[in-house]
Design brief:
A: alpha/beta, five-stranded parallel sheet, B: mainly alpha, 12 helices
Chain lengths: 414, 306
Amino acid sequence: MIRKAAVALAAMMLTTQAFAADAPAEIKIGTLYASSGRYASISMPVHSALKLWVDQKNAEGGVFVKAFDKKIPIKLVAYDDQSNTATAATLYNQLVTQDKVDLLVADSGSVLTAPAVTIARDHKMFLFDQTGTGASFFSKDNPYIALMSDPVSTIWPKPVADFITHDGPGLGIKKVAILYSTNEFTGTQANAVRKFIKDSGAPIEIVYDQGIPTETTNYTVIINNILAKEPDAVIHLGYAPNDIAFLRNVQDVGAKFKMLFCIYPGLETELLEKNVGAKGLQHVFTYVPPQELDYPVNFGMKMADFKKVWDAKYKDGKIEFGFNSVAGYTTALIIEKTLSVATSLDQMELRKAVFSLSGNLKTLDGTFALDEMGGQIGELTPLGQLELNEHGHIKFVSIYPHETATGKPVYPRP
Amino acid sequence: MLYPLIAGVLFGLYFSLVGIGLNLVFGVMRIVNLAHGDFLMLGAFVAFGIYTVAGLDPLVGIPIAFALFCIAGLLLYWVLVPRLQRARDPEMLSFILFFGFSQVIEALTTIVFGTSERSIPSRELANSLAGVRAAIFGGEPTNGPFRLLGLSFPASWVVAATVSVIAIGCVYLYLYRTRLGTLTRAVMSRRDEAIATGINVDRVSAAAFGIGLGLAAVAGVFAPFMFGSFTPAFGIDATVTSFVVVVLGSLGNPLGTALGGIVYGVSYMIVQTYLSSWADLLPYVLLIAILLLRPSGLLGRRVRVA
């Protein structure tokens, strides 16, 4: 009996020693961010949230890694791609081939994620895609990607299209204008809206459908062209700087669209309110972000706690709190949970671990759910409308789907 | 068609102002200021500061930005340009030097102000002049859209275009009606001959560099209204467009820059109307076309060297 116990004890010690010997001194997470350029305003909040989590975990002694049955400090290897896709491609390669990171995390947005998708696939690295929702990233023959924080763009605009096709005819919406920036993110959303409207069979005619360069900063003539088509609803799909310029130009020329949808008033409300003003956002339709929905969580901080921690860490207010900061923190939580269930750091094992969380992980961003190709199909954002409260500040009214609605749409815009 | 034409003229006049400072600097010194757009961006921050900190009409930023950047230009000239001129190939070296300078300005501005977009409400521009506008054109003394021939244009565009015309006029008067301007034209025409005739080329060039930077900063005051918002990274695009406008019009000619701006603005608006996806290619297409068809620019003159 004593001999058996001694053997078992020795075996246990050997196993522990083996774990300790194999365990790396740090877990290397490689990522990019854009400190300047067109995508800085969506990249920096995501990156800052990831950094916040890394600092938090390292202060606790590291993140628990099941493969080594211990907490291991995280080393965040992050390079600045300056919103340049060519620079991003070089730096993603560097992360994989030179820095040999354990986990590869994409920069924010589809444009800067696109180079990572190919590189990750070529090197058989699993890509933690933070907010790159472009349709072409996800295919059955690419197992090396999963979308962490935003719904994939092929389904994201469904509430908008459904509202127009289901409730629109009753409200008098017959003619729709679609204006989009020609990039993977908003181009996919435009395709999806067009498809949903056409497939619905609803009596809706698309009277204006134009793509414009993502770098567009001036919409005056375009707004005039849209007005000439007399649409009942205008759907503008662009990045935050596009929405800012578009909404400002709408005010500048005194245009009044009966219904106007834009993406970023909902996602980066603070930034948009600062630049467009509360009046300019009044009655604008947009996505209702998780900050307004207060999802129940089974892992990580709740929204109010996260906001408190964020405000304490980023006191200078140079980086806005919003949808993208939530997205960055959500990615971090998925990484943490993945490391806590993966039995090794092998890339396919990481994929298996990520997919095992699908449907089970509930964070402040909603339920994390993936389709078979790694596209995010949880964390949905209903359609809402921005209104002013009694103090003149922006408030969200959830409009569609009806089951989550908190009010009726104001249509036509007064 | 009428709308893009009028919008294009207004928009283009503003781009004349964006380009004229670059034209002056290149015309006099034959150096390429790749940081031109960054000075424009700094001008936007001056307007932003005047509005957010002091609560003043951003128009107040025009004399302040001009004076500040004129002085900065004079100082910068004495630090950078004489050394540059002594180099074997100052034009090529200026590319590298000012590219580096542009990166430094952008990085420092990002560190100080962050990366987020900033803007100023459109109604705040020339708010103090709304009463004057109402007296001339009728209507309410508020800063709403500007109506012309039944069409609606942003009031800020009209203000920016007006200031641009005044600024171009001032540059014209400076060059053709002042002694320093005459000397400036002499340096523009033949630098070596100007030196030989005893003109203090450094003094003339420093003044041109200061005025060039001052004009860039004045154009920057309107950037939040013309581009929707601005960030520290905004300078590169502005530099590219300035080049197109300057090369289109002809180097060293303020009226050429005005014409170049209008051609650019009208073409941009027409392309946005009929081929919107291709609008961003326009500057490069225009640049290639003008270099192939008329390298001296629209108002350029052939120079005969004896």
